[in-house]
Structures are given as C-alpha cells and as structure tokens.
Design brief:
Elements lengths: L13 H32 L4 E5 L2 H11 L3 E4 L5 H13 L5 E5 H4 L10 E4 L6 H8 L11
Parallel strand pairs: 1-3, 1-4, 2-3
Length: 145
C-alpha cells in the first residue's frame, strides 16, 4: 500500500490536518502489526503470555487472524460477556497466550497480570493513557515476572 504525503495548503483547517494524521497513524499501525508477528510468535513459542495494545480495531482483527486459537480480542465492539470471556480465557487458559485490545476499551478496568510482556503497536495520545494500559499488567497480584 502506498501513502503519499504532500505539503499542506494554507487554507487547510485543523480538522483536515487531524484527519491526515489519523490516516498516517492507521497506516503505520497496519505496518507495525505485521512487523510484530515474529516478536509475538517468539513469546508464544517461549510459552509466555503477551498483551498487545493498539488504537485500531482493524489491527486487533489482523493480529487475531494471524494467531487464531492462541489469541483473544478485547475491543469496544464486543459485549460485556465477550469481553469478560476474553479476560478469563487469557488469565486462566495456558494455551491462550496473546491478548489483543484497543487502548480505549482494554486500557482500563481489567486485570491481565498473567503476563509480564506488553507491546504497543501504537501508543495512546497521552502519557496517562499509556500508564493505564501498563497498569493492566504490572500491578499487585501479578503472577508473571
């Protein structure tokens, strides 16, 4: 896929600039997710668990498709039961070693302490949101080192 970046026109407004930034972030997310497959596979092969955060649902689906049965997805598109099933399966099933979530949906209010490996495909905009995602894993009750 090709992305062309051009100089902005003086008449462009902030919304146009933000739209361009968003498109570039989505493109880089897709590229980075494909590049991350080898790293994630190394974690799986080492019989460890990994939590992967991204901003985009399409990226979660792409990674899930690649890792199939050993992965679960947690996004805002899932209902509460599906979300809880994803967390429970990741936390309790030794064969489920990849948790893929969007920063917004999975970045707060859940515990993923069975993993000590965190990968951001793309980081949230604010340091506070990054810290929230980080705190899903590294907190009291962590079982992984």
């Amino acid at each position: 896929e090709e992305v062309i970046v051009t100089e902005t026109d003086e008449g462009d407004n902030d919304a146009t600039h933000l739209s361009r930034i968003q498109k570039l972030k989505q493109f880089t997310s897709a590229v980075k997710s494909k590049r991350s497959y080898e790293f994630i596979q190394d974690v799986v092969d080492g019989e460890e668990k990994i939590v992967v955060f991204t901003e985009y649902i399409a990226t979660t689906e792409s990674i899930k498709e690649h890792f199939e049965d050993c992965a679960v997805v947690f996004t805002g598109k899932k209902n509460m039961n599906e979300k809880q099933e994803a967390v429970d399966k990741f936390m309790n099933d030794k064969n489920t070693s990849v948790f893929i979530g969007t920063n917004g949906a999975a970045g707060v209010g859940i515990t993923l302490t069975s993993s000590s490996i965190l990968l951001f495909i793309d980081k949230p905009w604010t340091p506070a949101d990054v810290e929230q995602c980080y705190s899903r894993i590294f907190r009291l009750g962590s079982t992984a080192e």
